[in-house]
């Protein structure tokens, strides 16, 4: 990944999925990712500045039985230091199966939680 190389990141774990690209540099404790709506825009999160990561899902009441939005929320040392990595957004995502994206979010939650 060119963007990772340009930012001196050596990805020890990465995932390329139709809706998200994620990589993790274990030595620098940094995550690189794109989101479903911004496939050509990369973001970097420094886990050294993160105190908590949690999975967020939103189920709209009018569409029971289906997750409509899935993300990981990264919290920093203060309440204002929050970042969000979107795995699924029904309004913009081309991947029709939210359950697959939920399992992917759970996988990355476990990977990243072990490094905070």
Summarize the structure in words.
The chain has 116 residues and is α+β, with helices and mostly antiparallel strands. Helix content is 18%, strand content 42%. The protein has two helices and seven strands; from the N terminus they run αβββββββα. It has helices spanning 2-6, 98-113, and strands at residues 13-16, 21-25, 30-35, 38-46, 50-58, 69-76, 82-89. The strands form two sheets. A four-stranded antiparallel beta sheet has the order 1-2-3-4, with no helix packed on it. Strands 5-6-7 form a three-stranded antiparallel beta sheet, covered by helices on one side.
Shape: globular
In whole angstroms, the N-to-C terminal distance is 24 Å
Over the alpha carbons, how many angstroms does the gyration radius reach? Answer: 14 Å
The mean pLDDT is 85
**SSE string, helices as H and strands as E:** HEEEEEEEH
Range of helix content? 10-25%
Q: How much strand?
A: 35-45%
Please state how the strands of the largest beta sheet are arranged side by side: 1-2-3-4
Sketch the major β-sheet.
4 strands, antiparallel
Task: Please give the count of helices.
Answer: 2
List low-pLDDT spans.
none
Give the number of DSSP strands: 7
Structural class: alpha+beta
